[in-house]
Amino acid sequence: MKLFPLVILLASLLSPVHAEEPRATGISPELLGELERSLTMGDRAHLARNVLAQFDQNKINIDWDKVIAVDRHFSHKLPAGKITNQESTGRCWMFAGLNVLRPAAAKALGVEDIEFSQSYLFFYDKLEKANMFLEGVMRSREKPLDDRLVEFLLRTPVPDGGQWGGLVELSRKYGVVPKEVMPETYSSSHSDGMNRALGLKLRQYAQEIRRLADPARFPDLKKRALKDVYHILAVNFGLPPKTFSWRAQGKDKKLIAARTFTPQQFFHEAIGENLDDYYALFAIPGRPEGKLYEIDFDKAVYDRPNLTFVNVSVETLKELAKASILDGRAVWFGCDVGKETFGDKGLMVPEIHDLKSLYGMDFKLSRRDLVDTYNDSPNHAMVFSGLDLQGGRVTKWLVENSWSEKFGNDGYFTMLDEWFSDYVLMVVVHKKYIPAQVLGLFQTRAEVLPPWDPMYRALTIH
């Protein structure tokens, strides 16, 4: 009797192994038939099919009850200049950053409003990104073409996107000028054609670098490449001024006497403020909070630091933005603008696109699931220029966009606080509003994230 379990064990070991039945991986005729039989095209589905055959579903799935329920008034609104227009470029980060700085600049210069030349900084942004691309290719020249860094570089050599830190480094290095000194060209406001030319030329040089046996020749090759890039930029933008004469109408409607500036002088007189006092904070679900991160290659100037940020809760982002606005400072922020936004009316309201009624099924994903599945990233930068405080709680946020006055409510958007909870991923605020324990984290050692991380500078929405 005692040998019985052993006999069973031996028998099981010696018996033939039965492999699992292979799982069907294709769509068989049987499965297709089951799918066809599962469809019930009732009156609602039939009507939806007829409508979708003729109209954009992003127009017809708007929940009108949510549209008319939004109160457009705000308890706190900051002064702002005229609405800007980035047109067909991914310069939202630059427009938003310069829009944050405009009110203080107008005050410093004694004018009612001023718009800085985005074209001027865009010229140098492209030049610096070309340099960063070339340095990246040299750094990765021995890696295979299917290496992730090599692929990242070659796919988009000089993207339009950027971050607040890029604006700081570019304006500090090259200065700023009024928009009338270097106005937009078609190419500066419609960048696809120029980007194609730059991309082709830089990919030529990338292959030459990768095939070059003698690294001692890299400096001369890079210089030759940058000369070609400078030529392409000059043809598309014109040449940036080294000095310029400027005068404007003051607040008293009288003309201010003309003065001559260099762009660096104008930057110090118009902006002056130490931009290093502004810090980026993210709220990325799934990553530890209270920790410093750095994203490789997320910058505008190669020999300057990468983007660094502390990860905090979304509620902390809200508190910091609120403190800044109540103190009179607008807030640069990054969000996923394509989610639950009704551009025609300038509304950012959760589930304003009623897919559930259209298709008869649920589509809801949590904030973390949206990020983890690469469906949520900071793809657009704008400015918080007001908020509505009711009963001590912020119910909605006033958003200054850079898509011209044709979008939204004369260029402004109304964001419900619940939308902030779902889709705002980062803010940039002055250090005076950041708690000491959070500010101290910027002095710790950062975890470096690769440039293909979802939080890389995806701020490129046209």
Relevant terms:
462 residues, alpha+beta, Cathepsin B, Chain A, twelve-stranded mixed beta sheet, two-stranded antiparallel sheet, 18 helices, 40% helix
> CATH homologous superfamily?
Cysteine proteinases
* Tally of individual helices: 18
Structural class: alpha+beta
Low-confidence stretches: none
Estimate nothing, just give the exact number of structural domains: 1
**Biggest sheet features:** 12 strands, mixed
Q: What is the C-alpha radius of gyration, as a whole number of Å?
A: 27 Å
Percentage of residues assigned to helices: 40-55%
Q: What's the pLDDT, averaged over the residues?
A: 92
Which fold name is given in CATH as the topology?
A: Cathepsin B, Chain A
What distance lies between the first and last C-alpha atoms, to the nearest angstrom? 80 Å
Q: How would you sum up the global shape?
A: globular
Q: What share of residues are in beta strands?
A: 5-15%
What is the count of β-strands?
Answer: 14
